[in-house]
Design goal:
Layout: H1 17-33, E1 36-42, E2 45-50, H2 58-67
């Protein structure tokens, strides 16, 4: 038998076994709860991509993450700002 993991180790999906599945579930939940275009992850970092017109407070996403049991370092939190 040959098993092939088609998930990317870092980036758009977590793909790191059980932890990766939990991280992917968090990502899908946050995408569902907030009107985001996408979320990209790199190890313990998350990059939120939203439409310019959307008003999304990062504190709200942190509160939702904590409600889901996902630890979030609020010291590394940066507000969503236009580039």
């Amino acid at each position: 038998h040959l098993l092939i993991d088609t998930a990317v180790s870092f980036g758009r999906v977590a793909g790191c076994g059980t932890f990766g599945r939990v991280a992917d579930a968090w990502r899908e939940t946050i995408l569902y709860e907030f009107n985001l275009v996408n979320i990209f992850r790199w190890v313990d970092e998350a990059f939120f991509l939203k439409e310019f017109e959307e008003v999304i407070e990062m504190q709200t996403t942190v509160e939702k993450s904590q409600e889901l049991g996902v630890k979030t370092n609020i010291n590394k939190l940066a507000a969503l700002e236009p580039e």
